[in-house]
Specification:
By secondary structure, this protein is of the alpha+beta class. It has a single domain (7-192), classed as 3-Layer(aba) Sandwich (Aminopeptidase), CATH 3.40.630. 37% of the residues lie in helices and 30% in strands. The protein contains six helices and seven strands, in the order βαααβββαβαββα. It has helices spanning 16-25, 27-30, 48-64, 110-125, 140-149, 177-192, and strands at 7-9, 68-74, 77-88, 94-101, 130-135, 152-163, 166-176. Strand 3 (77-88) and strand 4 (94-101) form a beta hairpin. The mean pLDDT is 95.
């Protein structure tokens, strides 16, 4: 999927070397905002086979329609990931979005651009009704992403997720299909450069 400056595509086992270099370089930048690896589980950052298994798991999720993971690329350079996870159908029609960016590429607007591309995909291709993004309140760079897009804050979920070994409160942001259709032209023009249909 294309944005103005970025390309989103699923990662495959051949991306391991590049992905590992980005994750190692940005370790201190990313670790405070991510869950700890469960004891005894393989280290996906250090193990090529664990990374390949992760890619296969993401492929199964795509086939099942339960999740979609994408690398964020600027040209040929991997600079982060954005994932649409936990898709629920039935009366909810909801998904959760998470993202991370290489510290070297932070602050350039690549993640808001990627998020708009994923929002369009979720509402227009997958026909979801609602997307949610949960962010640790003190994670200012991540909060700036949803603030730039004007996603609605629905409040604080106390001790919502385990992050780096601590049950952290999260601010929950959301957008619905109705809001997307109302703001589609504005968001695409600003972040993707696509002409509205």
């Amino acid at each position: 999927m294309q944005g103005r400056r970025i390309t989103l595509r699923p990662l495959h086992p051949g991306d391991f070397g590049t992905w590992q270099a980005v994750r190692l370089r940005s370790h201190e930048w990313l670790t405070p905002w991510e869950p700890r690896r469960p004891p005894g589980s393989p280290d996906v950052i250090r193990s090529r086979s664990a990374f390949a298994a992760r890619c296969k798991a993401r492929e199964r999720e795509r086939h099942l329609g339960s999740g979609y993971g994408f690398g964020i690329f600027v040209g040929d350079q991997l600079c982060g990931e954005i994932n649409l996870n936990g898709i629920q159908r039935g009366p909810f029609q909801n998904g959760y979005v998470g993202y991370w960016i290489d510290e070297m590429f932070a602050g350039r607007g690549y993640v808001p651009e990627a998020l708009v591309v994923v929002i369009r995909f979720a509402f227009e291709d997958l026909s979801l009704h609602r997307l949610q993004v949960a962010i640790v309140p003190r994670n200012r760079p991540s909060r700036r992403v949803v603030e730039k897009l004007g996603l609605r804050c629905e409040g604080t979920a106390e001790r919502y997720l385990e992050i780096n070994g601590v049950w952290e409160d999260h601010l929950r942001f959301a957008i619905t299909a109705e809001e997307w259709h109302e703001r589609r032209s504005e968001l695409l023009a600003r972040w993707v450069g696509a002409s509205p249909l």
